[in-house]
Amino acid sequence: MLLPGVSVAAGDPDKGKAKAGVCAACHGKNGVAMVPIYPNLAGQNQAYLESSLKAYRAKQRQGGQAVVMQAQAASLSDEDIANLSAYYSSLQ
Amino acid sequence: MLLPGVSVAAGDPDKGKAKAGVCAACHGKNGVAMVPIYPNLAGQNQAYLESSLKAYRAKQRQGGQAVVMQAQAASLSDEDIANLSAYYSSLQ
């Protein structure tokens, strides 16, 4: 199995929640998306969420609605990404 | 809200299930991933799953573990993608 470059910071769900206001506009207040073209995030794996946010931030993820997430992720630090990922993975 | 090029075929969950054997190796038999770097798919929005698979197939999605999915999606038709997306979105 190929798992290149996988690393996951611990992440603080409370700090992630505090930062998640803008995310809720599309992904829903509880991580259930408002529009079906966007993914539900509640309960998603933390490591995957981190990997995805970093790929959007690096503009490696294109296609679909990626331009929206590239813009959102541009201002996130590694710590922000760890916290947001911890928060959404903690939701049911 | 930007929703360029959104279109979703109906998709047949039963045909999707029949095609999902290889997906289960990473995403789990019931759409719950075996390894946390991969996403859970159960209950994910159908339109998002379709959009993601097409972005992997077109190699627009890079970064993270994208090379794995690019290879998997390469042989999928639009109908396969619609069916697989319908199947995974139907799981709880």
TrEMBL record, chains A, B:
Descriptive protein name: Cytochrome c
Biological source species: Spartinivicinus marinus
Domain Cytochrome c: 11-92
Lineage: Bacteria, Pseudomonadati, Pseudomonadota, Gammaproteobacteria, Oceanospirillales
PROSITE patterns: CYTC (PS51007)
Entry keyword set: Electron transport, Heme, Iron, Metal-binding, Transport
One Pfam family from the record: Cytochrom_C
Listed GO MF terms: electron transfer activity; heme binding; metal ion binding
